[in-house]
């Protein structure tokens, strides 16, 4: 029986060696500064192999950082995916996917890089520098924008209308004034954040805000269902436009003060339920459905442009 056990473990050892030999990429290794894991197995670092050991360690650490960056981007994408499509900032989604794709390309390039040559070291250093730029100039700031899109600035973000009306009331204009004030506050927070980052990418601290305005209507109307839906859709478009027009007027002061660029996207949703899924009475009356809802993000312009 002992001979059979010996044969079994010997075969298992051979299979494991073959598996390791076929492993061509490094996946989250943990390196000691005193151990060199070269092609011939582990050995103590000494004066003869220390340069190769440091190159190996540099590559492994860079792969680990790239993998951590990728996981962070995946977490942010999951947050974006959890936001209702009517309130999600599409430009932000595109930017996040673009940075994710480049991060994956860096990981692929690193996994093809040999740590045992000076050319491999040069490539590793170049990719490590790019990864560092991505982390500090894009990935970390984008995290703030994704969270802002999730935690929409709700003060004054739902503008109510009277039955059958698309005329913005004085109260509605006050809510928009409050919202514009919140945008200014967010820009000031970004300026504080950027003051702690000296990267050249933020040297021109121009800002951009992307605003989504969705107009809704309740189910009221005396005509047949088809015409009622058509009229309510047109009404919802007018409500969204009324809010967008007032935002255009009130944002002018911020444009001058903060070199702000703004992009307002308005859309009529007709009799659709708003994201809050408001219930209606039997007559289809609901003040909570006669609204224009607003979602927005604001941040450095460079983060909200897709190249």
What's the architecture of the largest domain in CATH terms?
Answer: 2-Layer Sandwich
List how many beta strands DSSP finds: 6
Give the CA-CA distance, first to last residue. Answer: 67 Å
Instruction: Specify the biggest β-sheet.
Output: 4 strands, mixed
Report on this model:
This protein is α+β, with helices and mostly antiparallel strands and 307 residues long. The chain folds into 2 domains: 26-149, no CATH class; 152-304, 2-Layer Sandwich (60s Ribosomal Protein L30, Chain: A). The protein is built from 7 helices and 6 strands; from the N terminus they run αββαααβαβααββ. The strands form 2 sheets. It has a 4-stranded mixed sheet, sandwiched between helices. A two-stranded antiparallel sheet has the order 1-2. α2 packs parallel to α4 (118-150). Residues 4-33 and 277-283 have low confidence and may be disordered.
In short:
The protein is built from 7 helices and 6 strands. The chain has 307 residues and is of the alpha+beta class.
Which structural traits does this protein have?
13% strand, 307 residues, 60s Ribosomal Protein L30, Chain: A, 55% helix, alpha+beta, four-stranded mixed beta sheet
């Amino acid at each position: 029986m002992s001979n059979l056990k010996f044969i079994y473990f010997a075969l298992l050892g051979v299979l494991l060696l073959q598996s390791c030999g076929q492993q061509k990429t490094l996946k989250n290794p943990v390196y000691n500064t005193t151990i060199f894991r070269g092609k011939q197995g582990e050995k103590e670092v000494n004066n003869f192999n220390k340069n190769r050991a440091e190159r190996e360690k540099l590559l492994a650490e860079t792969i680990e950082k790239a993998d951590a960056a990728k996981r962070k981007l995946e977490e942010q994408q999951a947050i974006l995916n959890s936001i209702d499509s009517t309130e999600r900032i599409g430009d932000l989604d595109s930017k996040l996917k673009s940075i994710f794709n480049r991060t994956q390309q860096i990981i692929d390039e690193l996994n093809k890089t040999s740590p045992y040559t000076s050319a491999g070291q040069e490539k590793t250093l170049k990719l490590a520098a790019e990864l560092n730029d991505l982390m500090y100039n894009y990935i970390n700031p984008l995290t703030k924008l994704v969270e802002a899109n999730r935690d929409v600035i709700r003060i004054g973000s739902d503008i109510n209308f009277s039955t059958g009306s698309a005329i913005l009331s004085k109260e509605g204009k006050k809510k928009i004034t409050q919202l514009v004030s919140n945008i200014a506050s967010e820009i000031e927070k970004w300026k504080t954040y950027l003051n702690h980052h000296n990267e050249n990418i933020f040297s021109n601290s121009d800002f951009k805000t992307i605003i989504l305005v969705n107009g809704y209507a309740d189910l009221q109307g005396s005509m047949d269902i088809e015409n009622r839906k058509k009229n309510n859709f047109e009404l919802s478009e007018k409500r969204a436009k009324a809010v967008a027009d007032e935002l255009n007027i009130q944002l002018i002061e911020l444009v001058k003060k903060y070199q702000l660029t703004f992009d307002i996207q308005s859309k009529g949703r007709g009799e659709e339920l708003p994201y809050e899924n408001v219930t209606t009475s039997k007559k289809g009356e609901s003040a909570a459905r006669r609204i224009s809802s607003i979602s927005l993000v604001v941040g450095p312009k460079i983060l909200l442009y897709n190249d």
